Every structure is written in structure tokens, then in C-alpha cells.
DNA sequence: TTGCTTGTCTAGCGATGCTAGGATTCGAGT
DNA sequence: ACTCGAATCCTAGCATCGCTAGACAAGCAA
């Protein structure tokens, strides 16, 4: 038994290595640079090893996305719990979200732009994704306003943040006025 | 001279054919299916002909994007000019925008998701892109509210719509409540 | 020691974006 | 009318991609 356990442990370590390396490579040179060959070389194994852990590149992206979702939830909760009052909490949430997107563009892409083969907004949605949404809901629900479903409000607020994040990073919006846009968004959307 | 003119005309026709075919193929089977080989086969020319018109696949995407930007501007203006009152205009704009995104997913991707090699939010931004933004600004500027820069407001509103469009199409948001989200967004963001 | 499972690698397939270089066509000049 | 040269187009190929088959080696069980 002990032998099998050791092997399983080593396999798990290698799997984490694959995900971490893919993420690192993606953040350094973009997801296009994350080829199976380069990834295999970096972990010092041959290509087929990747396929003994994941069905393919898509699943690797999905694994990075899950990792990122958990981190984002932590970042959002840390920011909101350190803020006083509903408005400050919402501002902190928005900043934390956009900050995360800016600092981890590859992870953000894995989460919301690329196809990681994950189910969203469904029952079989992986727990980290649900929890990341829950982290948003916790602070946004209290400023949804009367008669507005908290979940719906959170979706709209989230979509707005997502729009700002993606358009800014894709060069469609200039980063200079980013702070002003956040202020405007919070002032208008949140009911205090 | 006449001969050269005829050739130039024929070249222009073929260039439009390339763009139209790429768009058609992308709408039918997604941009991944738009390979240079398939595209060349559909227009009944060899691959290198594509490269005598465009630097590469990226520029073809850019051409589709420009075409789409012009159409989107038309669609938005048609919707807003048929609506009475500021609020109705904004609602009409939002619906027209999301409708365009839903009905022309490949074109929308070319515009805002993919890299078409175009400059955005700069001086050398192609005219169709500027004009599409202007079309949004025309109706959104009047509901920006006092002391809020119309351009900034338009950017925020646009980003929100973009977020809704992309998250919905990527399966991150369920399409059922789409109408409610638009209502909420307009009610909160627009100052009437 | 022998046999078998498990793990890993080499080699290769079809497809991708893109390009070099040869062939063909066709108008211009005598 | 005929030749020459330039423009036009295609065949063939390169490097790279994601992914996989099949050979090989390592290591445990009998």
C-alpha cells in the first residue's frame, strides 16, 4: 500500500507542477506560448506525460482557472473585510477585482476568456467558481437595493467589472481614467 | 490605363470576397475553423493569394471587424432614432447592442475579443471604430448626468454592455434573465 | 528469476500560418 | 504581329501546433 501511496503522492506533486508551470509560462509569454512541447520541456518530462494527467491543453487551462478562482475569492474577501461601510466595501471589491485581473492576466483569461472545459452557472459548476461568485455576492448583495434580486444585481455588477477589465487590457479603453470609471460605476450601481 | 483600372477593380472585388467569406465561415463554424487553407478553397484561389491582400490572418480578422463596426453603428443609430425620450433611447441602444453581439458573434469577437491588429482609443484608430463609439456617445451622452464627462460615461456603459454580452455568450451568465439585467443596468446607470 | 503491470519516451500524424521559387499569363513596345 | 518583361498565381515546403501509437524500460508480485 505504501508504495502506491507514494506514487500517488508523486503524481499529485507532478500535476501541481504542470499547472503551476503552465500558469507561469502563460503569465510570462501569454497563453499562445503555452504549447505542450514547451510545457513538457519545462517540467522535464515528455509530452505524453501531460496527457496522463489531463485530457489536453484545454483541461490544463481549466485547472489554472480553478486555481485562479480560489485566489480571486480570497483577494475579494480580504479586501472587503478590511473596509468599513457598504460603499467602501463595494469600492474595495471593485478595486480588488480589477487589480486581480490586471496582475494575473493569464489566469483571468483562463477564467473568463478561454475555454477551459468548465461548466459555469450550472449545478455541476466546480466549487471554486461558485465560491468566487459567492464572494462577490456577499458584499454586493447588501447594496442591490429594494426589490432587486441580489444574485441578479451581482451578475450585472460583475459583468460591468468584467467589461472594464477586458476592454482595458485589450487596449480598447485607456488605463488613465480607470479609477474614475470605477467611482462612477459604484456610485451609480450600488444603492447605499 | 483602363486595363489597370479593371485589374484594380477586380482586386478590390476579390478582397471583399475574402472578407465576406471569412466572416461567413466564422459565423458558421467559429473563427477556429477559418484557416487559410479553407478560406482559400472557398474563394477558389490558392493560399498565397490571401497574403497578397492581407499580411496574414490577423489582418483579415481586422477587416471583418471594421465591416462589423460600421454595421453596428448603423444598427445602434437606427434603434435610437426610432425611440422617443432619453430612457427609451438608452434601452433601445442597449438592446440593439446586445442583439448585434448575439446575432453576429463572430463579428463581435473580431471587434472586441480577437486581435485584428487594429488600434483602439488612439489617434490612428480607424474611422469605423471611432464612429461606432460616436454612435454610442450620441445617445448616452445625454444621460451621463451633471458633472460627468459624457465620454467617460459612455465608456462605462459600453463596458457594462460588453461584459453582459461576453459573459452571456461564454456561458458564464444564463440567458434567461438577460432582459432584467438590461433594465437594471439602464435604470441605475442612466440619469434621466 | 520470471512475468506482468505500470510508467515513460521516441517517433509520427494531420493540421496550422506563412513563404520561397517556379510557371503562366498577359499587356506594352517595336 | 511578335517578342519581351512584368505582374499574377500556384505548387511545394518549412516550422510548429495538439495529440497519439507503439516500443521500451523500470519495478513490483509470484
UniProtKB/TrEMBL annotation, chains A, B:
Residues 35-54 bind DNA. GO terms for molecular function: DNA-binding transcription factor activity; transcription cis-regulatory region binding. Residues 12-72 form the HTH tetR-type domain. It comes from the Bacteria. Keywords: DNA-binding, Transcription, Transcription regulation. PROSITE patterns: HTH_TETR_2. This is TetR family transcriptional regulator. It comes from Streptomyces albiflavescens.
Amino acid at each position: 500500500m505504501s508504495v502506491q501511496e507514494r506514487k500517488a503522492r508523486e503524481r499529485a506533486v507532478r500535476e501541481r507542477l504542470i499547472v503551476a508551470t503552465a500558469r507561469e509560462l502563460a503569465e510570462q509569454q501569454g497563453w499562445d506560448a503555452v504549447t505542450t512541447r514547451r510545457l513538457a520541456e519545462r517540467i522535464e518530462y515528455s509530452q505524453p506525460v501531460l496527457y496522463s494527467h489531463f485530457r489536453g491543453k484545454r483541461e490544463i487551462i481549466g485547472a489554472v482557472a480553478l486555481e485562479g478562482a480560489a485566489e480571486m475569492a480570497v483577494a475579494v474577501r480580504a479586501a472587503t473585510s478590511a473596509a468599513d461601510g457598504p460603499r467602501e466595501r463595494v469600492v474595495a471589491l471593485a478595486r480588488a477585482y480589477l487589480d486581480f485581473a490586471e496582475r494575473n492576466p493569464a489566469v483571468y483569461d483562463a477564467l473568463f476568456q478561454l475555454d477551459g472545459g468548465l461548466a459555469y452557472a450550472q449545478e455541476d459548476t466546480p466549487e471554486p467558481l461558485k465560491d468566487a461568485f459567492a464572494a462577490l455576492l456577499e458584499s454586493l448583495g447588501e447594496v442591490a437595493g429594494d426589490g432587486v434580486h441580489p444574485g441578479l444585481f451581482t451578475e450585472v455588477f460583475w459583468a460591468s467589472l468584467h467589461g472594464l477589465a477586458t476592454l482595458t487590457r485589450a487596449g480598447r479603453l485607456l488605463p488613465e481614467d480607470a479609477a474614475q470609471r470605477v467611482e462612477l460605476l459604484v456610485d451609480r450601481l450600488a444603492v447605499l
